[in-house]
Amino acid sequence: MLTTSPAFKDNAAHALKDAGLQKALGKAKGAFLQRRAEAVSRLPEFEALRDVGRDIKNHTLANLDFYLETFAANVERAGGHVHWCSTAEEARAAVLEICRKAGAKTVTKGKSMISEELGINDHLEKHGIDPVETDLGEYIIQLRRETPSHIIAPAFHLNREDWEADFRRAHTDLDPDRVFHERRDILTEARTRLRQKFLAADVGITGANFLVAETGSSVIVTNEGNGDLTQTLPRVHIALASIEKVVPTLEDCVSLLRLLARSATGQDFSVYTTFSTGARREAEIDGPGEYHVVLVDNGRSAMVGTEFQEMLRCIRCAACMNHCPVYGAVGGHAYGWVYPGPMGSVLTPSLIGVEKAGHLPNASTFCGKCESVCPVKIPLPKMMRHWREREFERHLSPQGVRSGLGLWAWFAQRPGAYRLASRIGVGLMGLLGRHKGAFKSLPLAGGWTAGRDLPVPQGGTFMAQYAKRMRNR
């Protein structure tokens, strides 16, 4: 997948001017927030459950090698096959080899962000295999030759009229008089097109929300049922998952499932929650003849034991981005890689390097909402600060930024000089702007005034006003 994270500022500027995107963001983001709040209010023990989820993930990460080996042994005991892949290249090769052995011409796919990270679709297409996305959002994204803009709602950036236009472009036999009034109409059209693909597929690829070490099961949650069809109809099922998806037991998995849907879509549980354990048994009437799990590292193990290990607790609910004011303003594509929003601002530099993704940890107001809604209590702002420190230490930030921070640090370490400089600055700005109300331009403040006015300070410095109020008390 093409990485445009270094162009985040340009991407964001373009997104802010995109009327269609702004319309879609304005309509969609509020619904997620309201539904999550309602779902949480119906579960009195939700906060205690967040602690349980955090502790499960922490325990698993502390014993990751043990649980991965246990999971692999149980997959093989159930008749499945495990493929250990350190890199994206190894994972792509493993998937391609499985498809070739199956003689696959068509591959159906359930939504999988790790497949986006690995570029599975492009790799299969280059080798003559047709990958077909079956998730409704992923399907329209594939028609548009775009990437997802959200990790649970891939077409978050589109409006109903975009769907209709793309269907008419791609589905050339569509009745010209047909109008898509509701989401149901869109779903019916996609389902009609995909039915034959499901039946023709030789291999089905799904992601995995969790991998259960105790049983060797992969678990997926969907609201459309496409995941079930993808893994039961083809002769071969490939579960593609990153190593941090493993959890110790079925009980642990259920605890995390209680957090996942409430945090993601505001449901108590997703419509479909499917556990897959091995290939079809002799007495079973459906299911794949072969079951493969492709376990992908691709940089995760390097995060273990570092200040970024807590990011591996993520269960991909997207609550952080749903509540993020920056994501809500610019959408997912501005982040320039697979994972957007606050979780992407931490995970992306970990996987592709801060040299390519240094803008992302800076794309935050540090309001802290992402951490407050995270179902497993990941301290995202803290880790974004760690990445900012790394960026500064490696001299990756612009010289103007570095000089400004250096000057501020000098004053911050000298409280007397800091208070004196503050008083002088506030006094000068008040004097220069007393008849203006706001500055439209100001030396050394161009980064602010280029996009908005800078209000003239009212009264003295914060410290002076605070001291005055304390004296008055």
From TrEMBL:
Q: Does the keyword Membrane apply?
A: no
InterPro entries, per database record:
4Fe4S_Fe-S-bd, 4Fe4S_Fe_S_CS, FTHF_cligase-like_sf, Helical_ferredxn, LUD_dom, LutB/LldF, NagB/RpiA_transferase-like
Which keywords, in A-to-Z order, does the entry hold? 4Fe-4S, Electron transport, Iron, Iron-sulfur, Metal-binding, Repeat, Transport
Q: Does the keyword Repeat apply?
A: yes
Q: One MF term in GO for this entry?
A: metal ion binding
Q: Which residues form the 4Fe-4S ferredoxin-type domain?
A: 304-335
Q: Name one GO biological process term.
A: lactate metabolic process
For this protein, the record's SUPFAM superfamilies field holds: alpha-helical ferredoxin (SSF46548), NagB/RpiA/CoA transferase-like (SSF100950)
State what protein this is by name: L-lactate dehydrogenase complex protein LldF
